[in-house]
Amino acid sequence: MSGDSEAAIRRLGVADAERYRAFRLTALRDSPSAFTSSHEEERDKPIAATVRRLAEAEHGPGALLGAFDEDGELVGTAGLRVPGRRQERHKATLFGMAVAPAAGGRGIGRALVARTLEVACEDGELRQVLLTVSEGNEAAIRLYTSCGFEVWGREPQAVVVNGQAVTKLHMVRMLGTHQSRTAISASMSASEKP
């Protein structure tokens, strides 16, 4: 993790349901075009849906990660979803990446991406990590590019937010067959912080 970041990153579990839900709803409300889910849809789901999501992530494969500041506040999240079908088991999706605006500029986003990639490498079967990012979200695109992700496709009108069509860029990061946690951290430390 970057020296600028004072956040501790750990896996989230069912005990984090209330604060994860609150953080996610705030992110969806404040940055609606950054996500596929809408604030209204997620707000209307019962807390049991959040508990289920966290229970699945807690037992893997995949994970939901949280970054916590020095006061124990949840200031960032990222998820890694691994498909269940055998012929897709080699790829995972990074999703739900968000950092609280007040915690921006401290390397928390980079640390979350690095830890997500480490979790992917620890899995042992994954060969690549995919994600989508809204076209025009230059800060996120710079972050993902600096972490080794490359654009492989562009989906026009991927989502429509408040009547506005949003194009999504599809990105991928290949995982080396012997890429270790140390190699991920070293390669990301060598990159400039966005």
How would you classify the helix and strand content by structural class?
Answer: alpha+beta
Report the end-to-end length measured between terminal Cα atoms: 14 Å
Strand content: 25-35%
**Looking across the biggest beta sheet, what order are the strands in?**
1-2-3-4-5-7-6
Structure in words:
With 194 residues, the protein is of the alpha+beta class. Helix content is 35%, strand content 29%. A 7-stranded mixed beta sheet has the order 1-2-3-4-5-7-6, with helices on both faces. Strand 6 and strand 7 form a beta hairpin. Helix 1 crosses helix 3 and helix 4 (108-123) packs antiparallel against helix 6. It starts with 7 loop residues before the first strand and ends with a helix. The mean pLDDT is 89.
